[in-house]
Amino acid sequence: MDNSSLHTALSRIYPPDRLLTNPAQLTPYESDALTSFRARPKAVVIATSQSEVIQTVRLCHQLGVPFVARGSGTSLSGGSLPCADGLVIALNRLNRIIRLDPHERLAVVEPGVVNLEVSRAAAPFGLYFAPDPSSQPVCTIGGNLAFNSGGAHCLKYGMTSNHVLALKVVLPDGEVIELGSESLESTGPDLVGLFVGSEGLFGIALEVTLRLIPKPEAYKTVLAAYRSLGKAGDTVAQIVACGLLPGAIEIMDNLAIQAAEAAVQAGYPLDAQGLLVVELDGETRIVEAEFEQLMEVIHASGAYAVHVARDEADRQRIWKGRKSAFSAVGRLSPDYIVQDGVVPRSRLGEALVEIQRLSAAYDLRVANVFHAGDGNLHPLILFDGRQSGALERAEQLAGEILHLCVRFGGSITGEHGIGMEKRNFLPVMFSEADLQVMQALHRAIDPDQIANRGKMFPA
Which residues are CB-neighbours of 10 under 8 A, at least 6 positions away? Predict the structure, then answer.
């Protein structure tokens, strides 16, 4: 279909100020947070209602036009990269919290609601939404849903999939269906679980029913500094092995520490090669007892400096440093690639040492900052894209790290998804039979593959 015909059809749904076709208007939508992939769509539509989204999807199905749903564009895997011959459906203005029920501890929201806004709305009732990606102040629930986002506290509280009860969805053929229910007890196939993490291949969520949980009564947040990154990694397994289940266990290496400290002055020790952030939460008496046990483990682990957050302001400062680490690394390098492979906790220290070896072999700096509690690595590979071959070398190193994760018994992704970046690594982790089943399911739901075309599966 030619551009003028598509524009005419879309103009019946959208006013001119919400139908973008000029190159200058389209440029901001050419990539998501993984800027090494770029594509210019035919058009971008800015939806303000569920009805507009449904009409647009039905039009795309009728005309065979591929579409990509997009929120804040914080995907780090190219998951919201446009199709060059397709349409971007921007969902940021579908940002209503439709209902918040403190008695049932749930919130019904539209996909454009920012993650942190859910917790802010629930705070007066002593509740919050647990998944907390580093991009929490800007990322949207629709994106969290698409990639099954986790965050620093996923060790104890799980991923987005653990906090979604029901969905209202428009499928790629325009049919509107409802999945799940408001009950914590489900029956039959877990269709909500099937949709969460499907990276936009199964359609667009129009309403999401989220589970809210009570805010913890008390916190204890501990910083432990190590002379060795591997030693910090080994301590994670020791903490979990002793029976503790902290709300979060995070690790940062020296490069990440330097960047975060320069950005937000979090009070991190600048000489540490590995910095462990451990947070206990829950009832006060339980947290106090667990804190004594945690300190025994940390003091026996070889930490040369230990700091316990003095108050809530100190705790927030510690977390601000950790959550700003990704963006702060931009101070160290003009470009970087972020990976998110997973290794078993028992091999975390070994994996970190191996990544350091690969970094030296490729002559590329790697800043490590990650969710250590579940072994979810986030190595940031620093390079200068202005230098010939630098991106290709960085991508080769990223591929080595993914192979390492699978070899150690882990996964090629923890929460960033496959998107464009890792689709050719899918066969490293899954057998041909596995991939055939996945693709058969994909074709059953979207025979024409118009929803987020070209993502996830090998080219």
Answer: 19, 43, 45, 56, 59, 87
Distance (Å, whole) CA 372 – CA 234? 10
Closest among 219, 44, 32, 37 to 138, alpha carbons compared: 32
Rounded (10°) CA dihedral 196, 199, 205, 209:
30
**Tens digits of residue pLDDT in 24-48:** 999 999 999 988 899 999 999 999 9
Q: Which CATH architecture has domain 3-90?
A: 2-Layer Sandwich (3.30)
CB 371 within 8 A of CB 134: no
Give the CA count within 13 Å in the CB-facing half-sphere of 363: 3
Q: What is the pLDDT of residue 2?
A: 63
366 by DSSP, 3-state: which?
A: strand
Place of tokens 């998951």: 79
pLDDT digits (tens, 9 = 90+) for 378-425: 999 999 989 999 999 999 999 999 999 999 999 999 999 999 999 999
Q: State the Cα–Cα distance between residues 351 and 429, nearest whole angstrom.
A: 17
CA distance to 90, 339, 382, 410, per residue, from 366 (Å):
34, 11, 6, 20
Which pLDDT band, with edges at 50, 70 and 90, does 327 fall under?
confident
Q: Nearest Cα to 80, choosing from 456, 458, 457?
A: 456
- Please report the beta strands in 340-458, taking only residues with DSSP state E, as ranges in sequence order: 366-371, 379-383
Which fold does the domain 97-214 belong to in CATH?
Answer: 3.30.465
Domain ranges of the chain: 3-90, 97-214, 218-327, 333-407
Contact 230, 282 (CB under 8 A): no
125: alpha, beta or left? (left if phi > 0; alpha if psi -120 to 50): alpha
